[in-house]
Amino acid sequence: MTTPLFRHDAYLRTCEAEVTAVNDRGGIVLDRTVFYATGGGQPGDSGYLELENGEKIEIATSVYGEDRMSIVHVPAEGQDLPQPGWKVAAHVDWARRYRHMRVHTALHLLSVALPYPVTGGQIGNPEGRLDFDMGEDTIDKDGLISKLEALVDGDHEVSTEWITDEELDASPGLVKTMSVKPPRGSGRVRLVRIGGEVDLQPCGGTHVSRTSEIGRLELGKIEKKGKQNRRVRIRLND
Q1: CB burial class (10 A; 0-12, 13-18, 19+) of residue 91?
Q2: Class in CATH terms, 98-236
Q3: What's the whole-model pTM score?
Q4: Statement: residue 218 has pLDDT above 90
Q5: Cβ distance 165 to 188 under 8 Å?
Q6: What digits encode the pLDDT tens for the residues 117-144?
Q7: DSSP letter string over 171-218?
């Protein structure tokens, strides 16, 4: 089992850890990590592991193990692998991660500005997208970007809280995504809240602490995907 430190503090950039296993494909499992594992439309983190002798192992991405309890750090090709029991320092590529945090939080705001069922999504750098089941409704692009800017400029706090599986079952309206279901199995589900009542939905990803950190946004391409789906892209405008 890997303790996911990012789940409680998305701003941690490094941590001390111990190698607990190296799988048959060369994936490195640690007892604790700051590396976000691929999931919920958000890419896994990259970065490097620093050995006690100062050598570095470049990490290309991070994924969940088959048991969903461990996080596997996938090294770039040609790396020498550590041994179980070795002590390392895990360093996440912070510039890349922080942009994912900003885009992910912006997509939550997009789901507020366009209050339709979400059929899919993807977080990227510097662009992300959501797919909406909106029938024949049209999108007012100027109105949409104005709503997003107002939400960003509102400087709303972004926080997390937890509810039980039973509480989620009793409030199905919390789940906006039709294609991605909240992770279950531990008996509780993590919610991300924006402001007092701006948004509240299950999510296991990493986010900024205030909406003002997102910065300027611009709309990307809007596409029709099937009879009812609309794909809406937004990107960071740095």
Answers
A1: middle
A2: alpha beta
A3: 0.93
A4: yes
A5: yes
A6: 999 999 999 999 999 999 889 999 999 9
A7: -GGG--BSSSPPP-SSSEEEEEEETTTTEEEE--S---SBGGGG--EE
CB 200 within 8 A of CB 167: no
Q: What is the DSSP string of 98-157?
A: HHHHHHHHHHHHHHHHS-S-EEEEEE-SSEEEEEEE-TT----HHHHHHHHHHHHHTT-B
Q: Would you state the torsion angle of the CA atoms of residues 31, 97, 223, 202, taken in this order, to the nearest 10 degrees? A: 50
Is a pLDDT exceeding 70 seen at residue 12? yes
Q: Would residue 111 be called left, alpha or beta, if left means φ above 0 and alpha means ψ between -120 and 50 degrees?
A: alpha
Conformational region of residue 227, where left means phi above 0, alpha means psi within -120 to 50, and beta covers everything else:
alpha
- Report the alpha-carbon distance of residue 86 to residue 193 in Å, rounded: 38
List where CATH 3.30.980.10 sits in the chain: 98-236
* CA 125/CA 93 separation, integer angstroms: 13
Residue 80 tokens, joined: 């020498």
The pLDDT tens digits for 66-114 are: 888 999 999 999 999 999 999 999 999 999 999 999 999 999 999 999 9
Q: Among 2.40.30.130, 2.102.10.10, 3.30.70.250, 3.30.450.20, name the CATH number for the domain at 3-92.
A: 2.40.30.130
